[in-house]
Amino acid sequence: MRVLIGLLWLLHWLPLPVLGRFGEAIGSLLFLLLGKRRHIALTNLRLCMPELSEEARRAIAREHFRSYSRSIFERSILWWAPEARVRKLIQVEPAVPQAAMEAGPTILLCPHFVCLDVAGVAARVIPVCSMYVPQKNAAFDRLLRHGRERYGPVRLVTRKEGIKPILRALRDGLPYFMLPDMDFGEKDAAFVPFFGVPAATLTALGRLAGSTGAKVIPVVASFLPNYQGWRVRFYPAWENYPGDDMIEATRRMNAFIEERVREAPAEYFWTHKRFKTRPPGEPSLYD
C-alpha cells in the first residue's frame, strides 16, 4: 500500500490531461480483468435502462470503468497539489451557496458519482460534517483522512456512531455532507423505486430534514470536457421537503438522482450492488 501511495504522489505532478488519460487506460484494462464488477455494472444497467441495447449498456459500463479509474488517479491532485491549483480546476455552477449554508441547518445531498470528492472540496467554504468509513489499512486510512481534512475543519462521523453526532453537528451550524444512495440493507430503509426497480433506500434524508428543519441542497460533481477539470453544480434548495410522507420524500430523492444519472450515465457508481437487498421472497438479481 505504501508503494501505491508513493506512486499516486508522483502522479499528482502530471498535467491533468495526461493523468486523466492514464487513468482511463487503466480503467479499460480493469473492465476486461474485473469480471465480477463488470457483471454487477451490466446487471445494474440492464435493470435501470432496459430501453437501451446490450451494446449500448456495455459501452456505458466500459466508460464507467474508465471514468471511475480516472477519478481515483485524479484524487492525487486533490490530496497533494497546491490548493490554488485545485481550486483553479473546479468550475462551480452557479456558486457555492455559502449564505444559505450559514443561515441554518443544511444537508448537502451528494449522490454517488465518481467525482464526489471534488464536490466535497468545493463545499468547504465553511466547516462541514461528513460520514467516514475507517479503512482496514492504516496507511490508506491516514491518506483518506488527510484528503478530507486538508481543506479546513471537518467533523468526521462513522456509521457506528449513529445519528447523534450528525444532529449535534447540524445544531452547531455545520452542513452535513450526505451520500444516502447505496444499499445498506433493510435497517432504516424502505423499498422505493430506483429506475422503476424496488431498491432498499435509506429514509434518513427525509427524517433528518424533518426532525431538524434542515434545508436540502443537492450537489453533483462531474468531469469538464477535454480534461479541463471538474464541474460542481449546486442545485436550489428543495421546497416543501420532506412533507409528512417519508416514503414519498425518499421517492423524490431517488427521482432526482435518476435525472442526474441520465445526464451523465457513465459517471454513476454502477459497480455497487444497488439492488442487493430484495423484498421478502424475491431472488438475488446478481446471481
TrEMBL record:
Pfam families attached to this UniProt entry: Lip_A_acyltrans
Major localisation: membrane
Keyword Calcium: no
Record's keyword terms, sorted: Acyltransferase, Cell inner membrane, Cell membrane, Membrane, Transferase
InterPro entries xrefs: LipA_acyltrans
Keyword Transferase among UniProt keywords: yes
GO molecular function, one term: acyltransferase activity
Signal peptide: none
Recorded superkingdom: Bacteria
Cellular localisation: Cell inner membrane
Name assigned to this protein: Lipid A biosynthesis acyltransferase
